[in-house]
Model the fold of this input.
Amino acid sequence: MRLPAGERVGVQAPLGRRLVHVVERREHGAYVVLTAADPDGPVPLPGQFYMLTAAERWGGGGDERPLLPRAFSVLRVSGASRPVLEFMLEAVGPGTERLCELGEGEGLQLLGPLGLGFTAPADGRRAILCGGGVGTAPLAILQDVLLADGIPQTALLGFRDAAHAAGAALLSDAVVATDDGSLGRSGLVTELLADALDSGGDAEVYACGPPPMLEAVRALCEARGVPAQLALESGMACGYGACFGCVVPVHGGGYVRLCVDGPVLEAARLDTCLTAGHGSGG
Done:
Protein backbone atom coordinates (compact mmCIF):
# COMPACT_ATOMS: atom_id res chain seq x y z
CA MET A 1 0.00 0.00 0.00
CA ARG A 2 1.20 3.49 -0.85
CA LEU A 3 -0.22 6.77 0.40
CA PRO A 4 -2.02 8.57 -2.45
CA ALA A 5 -0.49 11.82 -3.67
CA GLY A 6 -2.39 14.87 -4.84
CA GLU A 7 -6.16 14.41 -5.07
CA ARG A 8 -7.83 12.86 -2.03
CA VAL A 9 -9.23 9.40 -2.74
CA GLY A 10 -10.92 6.52 -0.98
CA VAL A 11 -11.35 2.82 -1.63
CA GLN A 12 -14.98 2.14 -2.50
CA ALA A 13 -16.93 -0.07 -0.11
CA PRO A 14 -19.01 -3.01 -1.33
CA LEU A 15 -22.74 -2.41 -1.01
CA GLY A 16 -24.37 -3.58 2.20
CA ARG A 17 -23.12 -4.73 5.55
CA ARG A 18 -20.86 -7.74 5.91
CA LEU A 19 -20.80 -10.19 8.79
CA VAL A 20 -17.27 -10.80 10.07
CA HIS A 21 -16.02 -12.35 13.28
CA VAL A 22 -13.68 -11.09 15.95
CA VAL A 23 -10.42 -13.02 15.93
CA GLU A 24 -8.76 -11.16 18.80
CA ARG A 25 -9.66 -8.76 21.59
CA ARG A 26 -6.99 -6.99 23.58
CA GLU A 27 -6.88 -4.09 26.00
CA HIS A 28 -4.56 -1.08 26.04
CA GLY A 29 -5.37 0.70 29.28
CA ALA A 30 -8.76 2.37 28.82
CA TYR A 31 -9.06 1.20 25.21
CA VAL A 32 -10.12 -2.04 23.55
CA VAL A 33 -8.69 -3.16 20.21
CA LEU A 34 -10.82 -5.57 18.18
CA THR A 35 -9.30 -7.51 15.30
CA ALA A 36 -11.56 -8.98 12.61
CA ALA A 37 -10.85 -10.74 9.33
CA ASP A 38 -12.70 -9.18 6.38
CA PRO A 39 -11.99 -11.55 3.46
CA ASP A 40 -14.73 -10.09 1.25
CA GLY A 41 -13.72 -6.46 1.71
CA PRO A 42 -11.06 -4.28 0.05
CA VAL A 43 -7.92 -2.97 1.76
CA PRO A 44 -8.72 0.48 3.22
CA LEU A 45 -6.57 3.58 2.89
CA PRO A 46 -5.32 5.49 5.96
CA GLY A 47 -8.03 7.82 7.23
CA GLN A 48 -11.01 5.81 5.96
CA PHE A 49 -13.61 4.50 8.39
CA TYR A 50 -16.19 1.76 8.95
CA MET A 51 -19.70 1.68 10.41
CA LEU A 52 -19.79 -1.04 13.08
CA THR A 53 -22.59 -2.87 14.87
CA ALA A 54 -22.58 -5.98 17.03
CA ALA A 55 -24.27 -8.89 15.23
CA GLU A 56 -26.27 -9.80 18.36
CA ARG A 57 -27.87 -7.80 21.19
CA TRP A 58 -27.45 -4.53 19.29
CA GLY A 59 -30.13 -2.59 21.11
CA GLY A 60 -30.79 -0.40 24.12
CA GLY A 61 -33.51 0.31 26.64
CA GLY A 62 -36.25 -1.93 27.95
CA ASP A 63 -37.54 -2.73 24.47
CA GLU A 64 -34.05 -3.26 23.01
CA ARG A 65 -34.55 -0.62 20.31
CA PRO A 66 -31.76 -0.99 17.72
CA LEU A 67 -28.85 1.36 18.24
CA LEU A 68 -27.39 3.35 15.37
CA PRO A 69 -24.13 2.04 13.86
CA ARG A 70 -20.96 3.57 15.22
CA ALA A 71 -18.28 5.08 12.96
CA PHE A 72 -14.67 4.07 13.64
CA SER A 73 -11.48 4.83 11.76
CA VAL A 74 -9.49 1.76 10.90
CA LEU A 75 -6.53 1.47 13.25
CA ARG A 76 -4.41 -0.96 11.28
CA VAL A 77 -4.74 -3.40 8.40
CA SER A 78 -2.75 -6.47 7.41
CA GLY A 79 -3.10 -8.86 4.50
CA ALA A 80 -2.77 -7.80 0.88
CA SER A 81 -5.84 -9.56 -0.53
CA ARG A 82 -7.79 -10.79 2.52
CA PRO A 83 -7.69 -7.85 4.92
CA VAL A 84 -7.48 -8.25 8.68
CA LEU A 85 -8.74 -5.06 10.31
CA GLU A 86 -8.10 -3.54 13.73
CA PHE A 87 -10.33 -0.99 15.47
CA MET A 88 -9.59 1.05 18.59
CA LEU A 89 -12.63 1.52 20.87
CA GLU A 90 -13.47 3.21 24.14
CA ALA A 91 -16.64 2.45 26.10
CA VAL A 92 -18.40 5.81 26.51
CA GLY A 93 -22.05 4.81 26.07
CA PRO A 94 -24.34 1.84 25.37
CA GLY A 95 -23.27 1.34 21.77
CA THR A 96 -19.53 1.43 22.37
CA GLU A 97 -19.94 -0.60 25.57
CA ARG A 98 -21.58 -3.38 23.58
CA LEU A 99 -18.83 -3.30 20.96
CA CYS A 100 -16.15 -3.38 23.64
CA GLU A 101 -17.77 -6.51 25.12
CA LEU A 102 -17.23 -8.52 21.94
CA GLY A 103 -14.81 -11.39 22.22
CA GLU A 104 -13.14 -13.92 19.98
CA GLY A 105 -15.57 -15.68 17.67
CA GLU A 106 -18.41 -13.19 18.11
CA GLY A 107 -20.04 -11.54 15.11
CA LEU A 108 -19.47 -7.98 13.97
CA GLN A 109 -21.45 -6.29 11.21
CA LEU A 110 -19.41 -3.75 9.27
CA LEU A 111 -19.88 -1.37 6.37
CA GLY A 112 -16.82 0.11 4.73
CA PRO A 113 -14.29 1.33 3.98
CA LEU A 114 -15.97 4.72 3.66
CA GLY A 115 -14.90 8.31 3.11
CA LEU A 116 -11.72 9.92 1.83
CA GLY A 117 -8.41 9.49 3.61
CA PHE A 118 -5.00 11.10 3.95
CA THR A 119 -2.65 12.00 1.10
CA ALA A 120 1.13 12.01 1.03
CA PRO A 121 3.05 15.09 2.23
CA ALA A 122 3.71 17.56 -0.56
CA ASP A 123 7.12 18.84 -1.65
CA GLY A 124 9.13 16.32 0.36
CA ARG A 125 7.87 17.63 3.70
CA ARG A 126 8.19 15.56 6.84
CA ALA A 127 4.97 14.34 8.43
CA ILE A 128 3.96 15.29 11.97
CA LEU A 129 1.21 13.06 13.34
CA CYS A 130 -0.83 14.64 16.14
CA GLY A 131 -3.53 12.62 17.91
CA GLY A 132 -5.79 12.96 20.91
CA GLY A 133 -7.43 9.99 22.64
CA VAL A 134 -9.17 7.61 20.22
CA GLY A 135 -7.97 9.99 17.51
CA THR A 136 -4.83 7.88 17.75
CA ALA A 137 -6.53 5.26 15.57
CA PRO A 138 -6.14 6.59 12.00
CA LEU A 139 -2.60 7.75 12.76
CA ALA A 140 -1.44 4.18 13.42
CA ILE A 141 -2.28 2.92 9.92
CA LEU A 142 -0.93 6.20 8.51
CA GLN A 143 2.36 5.73 10.35
CA ASP A 144 2.64 2.17 9.02
CA VAL A 145 2.37 3.43 5.42
CA LEU A 146 4.70 6.40 5.96
CA LEU A 147 7.36 4.14 7.42
CA ALA A 148 6.97 1.66 4.55
CA ASP A 149 7.29 4.51 2.05
CA GLY A 150 10.37 5.91 3.79
CA ILE A 151 8.71 9.26 4.59
CA PRO A 152 10.13 10.95 7.72
CA GLN A 153 7.52 11.25 10.47
CA THR A 154 7.08 12.19 14.12
CA ALA A 155 4.17 11.02 16.27
CA LEU A 156 2.77 13.26 19.05
CA LEU A 157 -0.09 11.89 21.15
CA GLY A 158 -2.16 13.41 23.94
CA PHE A 159 -4.30 11.61 26.52
CA ARG A 160 -6.34 12.35 29.62
CA ASP A 161 -4.20 10.26 32.00
CA ALA A 162 -1.82 7.31 32.21
CA ALA A 163 -4.61 4.75 31.78
CA HIS A 164 -5.56 6.29 28.45
CA ALA A 165 -1.93 6.91 27.48
CA ALA A 166 -1.46 3.14 27.24
CA GLY A 167 -2.94 3.62 23.77
CA ALA A 168 0.32 5.28 22.70
CA ALA A 169 1.84 1.79 22.41
CA LEU A 170 -0.18 1.35 19.22
CA LEU A 171 2.26 3.67 17.42
CA SER A 172 6.03 3.52 17.21
CA ASP A 173 8.21 5.97 19.15
CA ALA A 174 5.35 8.34 20.02
CA VAL A 175 5.98 11.38 22.22
CA VAL A 176 3.21 11.58 24.83
CA ALA A 177 1.51 14.32 26.81
CA THR A 178 -1.15 13.80 29.48
CA ASP A 179 -3.59 16.34 30.86
CA ASP A 180 -2.81 15.37 34.46
CA GLY A 181 0.93 14.85 34.00
CA SER A 182 0.77 11.19 35.04
CA LEU A 183 2.78 10.11 31.98
CA GLY A 184 5.01 11.98 29.57
CA ARG A 185 4.80 15.75 29.36
CA SER A 186 2.23 17.48 31.53
CA GLY A 187 -0.08 19.49 29.29
CA LEU A 188 -1.71 19.37 25.90
CA VAL A 189 -0.52 17.58 22.79
CA THR A 190 -0.79 20.88 20.91
CA GLU A 191 2.04 22.19 23.08
CA LEU A 192 4.19 19.35 21.71
CA LEU A 193 3.03 20.28 18.23
CA ALA A 194 3.95 23.94 18.68
CA ASP A 195 7.46 22.91 19.75
CA ALA A 196 7.81 20.58 16.75
CA LEU A 197 6.67 23.26 14.31
CA ASP A 198 8.98 25.85 15.84
CA SER A 199 11.99 23.53 15.56
CA GLY A 200 12.25 24.35 11.86
CA GLY A 201 12.06 22.44 8.62
CA ASP A 202 9.17 21.98 6.22
CA ALA A 203 6.38 19.84 7.63
CA GLU A 204 2.81 18.74 6.99
CA VAL A 205 0.57 17.97 9.95
CA TYR A 206 -1.84 15.04 10.17
CA ALA A 207 -4.25 15.24 13.09
CA CYS A 208 -7.24 13.46 14.59
CA GLY A 209 -8.95 14.04 17.91
CA PRO A 210 -11.77 15.95 19.58
CA PRO A 211 -12.91 19.23 17.98
CA PRO A 212 -11.20 21.57 20.52
CA MET A 213 -7.87 19.85 19.88
CA LEU A 214 -8.33 19.98 16.11
CA GLU A 215 -9.25 23.65 16.28
CA ALA A 216 -6.03 24.34 18.18
CA VAL A 217 -4.09 22.37 15.54
CA ARG A 218 -5.82 24.28 12.73
CA ALA A 219 -5.02 27.65 14.34
CA LEU A 220 -1.38 26.73 15.01
CA CYS A 221 -0.85 25.60 11.43
CA GLU A 222 -2.64 28.62 9.98
CA ALA A 223 -0.48 31.00 12.01
CA ARG A 224 2.71 29.31 10.82
CA GLY A 225 1.66 28.68 7.22
CA VAL A 226 1.94 24.91 7.65
CA PRO A 227 -0.39 22.62 5.65
CA ALA A 228 -2.50 20.26 7.73
CA GLN A 229 -4.87 17.38 7.09
CA LEU A 230 -7.50 16.90 9.77
CA ALA A 231 -9.55 13.74 10.32
CA LEU A 232 -12.70 15.21 11.85
CA GLU A 233 -14.98 13.44 14.30
CA SER A 234 -18.74 13.69 13.90
CA GLY A 235 -21.88 11.75 14.67
CA MET A 236 -22.65 9.62 11.63
CA ALA A 237 -25.88 7.70 11.14
CA CYS A 238 -25.58 6.27 7.62
CA GLY A 239 -22.05 6.64 6.20
CA TYR A 240 -23.45 7.23 2.70
CA GLY A 241 -24.13 10.99 2.83
CA ALA A 242 -27.91 10.53 2.86
CA CYS A 243 -28.80 11.79 6.34
CA PHE A 244 -26.71 15.02 6.40
CA GLY A 245 -26.00 14.42 10.08
CA CYS A 246 -22.26 15.01 9.80
CA VAL A 247 -22.06 18.29 7.84
CA VAL A 248 -19.46 20.95 8.63
CA PRO A 249 -19.20 24.48 7.17
CA VAL A 250 -16.30 25.43 4.91
CA HIS A 251 -14.69 28.65 3.67
CA GLY A 252 -16.79 30.55 1.17
CA GLY A 253 -20.08 29.21 2.46
CA GLY A 254 -21.78 25.88 2.15
CA TYR A 255 -21.20 22.58 3.86
CA VAL A 256 -19.49 19.26 3.25
CA ARG A 257 -20.54 15.86 4.52
CA LEU A 258 -17.73 14.23 6.46
CA CYS A 259 -18.79 10.70 5.57
CA VAL A 260 -18.36 11.24 1.81
CA ASP A 261 -16.28 14.45 1.46
CA GLY A 262 -14.10 13.61 4.47
CA PRO A 263 -13.52 12.61 7.18
CA VAL A 264 -10.10 13.99 6.24
CA LEU A 265 -10.16 17.63 5.12
CA GLU A 266 -7.45 20.19 4.50
CA ALA A 267 -7.36 22.56 7.46
CA ALA A 268 -7.29 25.52 5.06
CA ARG A 269 -10.85 24.67 3.94
CA LEU A 270 -12.24 25.21 7.45
CA ASP A 271 -13.09 28.36 9.38
CA THR A 272 -13.18 26.37 12.61
CA CYS A 273 -13.32 22.77 13.80
CA LEU A 274 -15.57 23.56 16.76
CA THR A 275 -18.78 23.02 14.78
CA ALA A 276 -17.97 19.34 14.27
CA GLY A 277 -19.72 16.88 16.55
CA HIS A 278 -17.98 14.69 19.10
CA GLY A 279 -17.85 11.25 17.53
CA SER A 280 -20.77 8.88 17.53
CA GLY A 281 -21.98 9.71 21.03
CA GLY A 282 -21.32 6.23 22.38
